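Lecture 7, part B: from sequences to assemblies.

Below are the input chains for today's worked example.
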Amino acid sequence: MPETRDVSVRARWTSIVLAAVTVASLTACGSDSANTAATGASASPNAVSGPITVFAAASLTGSFTQIGKDFEAANPGTTVTFSFAGSSALATQINQGAPADVFASAAPANMKTVTDAGNADGTPETFVKNQLVIVVPKGNPKNITTLAGLAQPGVKVALCAPQVPCGAAAQKALQAANVTVTPVTQEQDVKAALSKVTLGEVDAALVYRTDAKAAASDVEGVEFPESASAINEYPIVVVKNAPNKAGAQAFVAYVLSEPAKKVLTDAGFQAP
Amino acid sequence: MRRRRAPLALAVPAVLGLLFLVLPLVGLLYRAPWSTLPERLTEPGILSALRLSLLTATIATLVCLVLGVPLAWLLARVSFPGRRLVRALVTVPLVLPPVVGGVALLLVFGRRGLIGEWLDSTFGITLPFTTAGVVIAEAFVAMPFLIIAVEGALRGADARYEEAAATLGAGRWTTFTHVTLPLVAPGVAAGAVLCWARALGEFGATITFAGNFPGKTQTMPLAVYLALETDLEAAIVLSLLLLIVSVAILASLRDKWISSA
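Predicted structure of the full complex, as structure tokens:
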């Protein structure tokens, strides 16, 4: 993460301490899951227990936190911990040997990074889809109702950078609409683009419907037909070197089940 | 003459410390795609990002010198109520996560910010998403490094020279420019180097306050971060380029200072 380069002397101390604590807890988790897996295997082969570490795309923060709680309630003895970050950062971490059990990516491209490196167990499954909407400040002061509205003079627009999934989707949608938009900024992720609208620095941004829904108190989402040509699929997979493989498989199965689907669609995702 | 050996209690942690700082760089060098390096360096956008980085970091350092040296002098030489508090406030940008610093800057200088709204309505000036915005973000984050270095130099400097100048009839301004500044010049230089280096590597506040647009606000760290999204090797190349250019500039400046001294 770039922030680590940015930290001050004091913050660096904090991060060293945090790193030490994390390492300590990870090793603890490791031995824990090894023990429970061993005892679990001798007692009953189907029992799921122990800690499950899920690396999930930042856009899943709200819904996966809920799904994690539901999963824990349905499977006593399990604890689900999440690492929410950009999909590409998570893919890099997994390929560098991070102790993840499950990887849920916001884009097939980042999942491919992991499967290409041979770090996925089985084939990834798409569990939700997300599509773009235009977000504008409450009341839509610039009266933007279509993608073409973003190209008007005097309208400041934030898009995601083309390197990140929401930016690639935005390019596709704009191409489909045959509209050329010069944004004032290409943001590093969808939440950053959204925050430029909530802070009033830009007049509009293209973000996922789920993000617009989560920020509904500050912004309005404007649906547009071309978003259909830029639908983003979210794949999920068990990580090959998962410390808790049984737990990982159970969690993936739960995410694909009806109760989890309801949580996800309530958050604005579409069923695959 | 026999050299005295450093005591183990100092040598061991010193070497460990050096390794800790240098090993990540070794990691970058190890993973760098040396065979495709030349063509990667000539990719469009890289040079404009580098130019923008060097330009904004240098202007930000000048801004920090103009504002920071007087502030350091004030903290070191003038006793006023609340000086301790002011000294603590100076370190706020160090403690604040840079991204939060960027949001804070937006809340002040943004289109709806405390000062930004007035700037926009009165002069038609908007700072976010401009190169000037990059300079502001970098100066905000880097200035404490300069102030702390200069204040330390001022406190370490012998105040008797300034007193002597004063007894000889020099005013406070003349004393400052003719006695104090030359006395702490090495401290100012060290502070400026730290400040420049910090500005050059600035990411969080810049991308939050100034946004990211190639040629206008996309500095090298921003380009590195976005390259990392798709291509680890491109990110490594960009990081090494930034590193080599900055080390070369600092080394040549250092030689210049030492030879002229």
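Note for the exam: Residues 3-129+233-266 of chain A form a domain with the D-Maltodextrin-Binding Protein; domain 2 fold (CATH 3.40.190.10). Keep this in mind when comparing with the next example.
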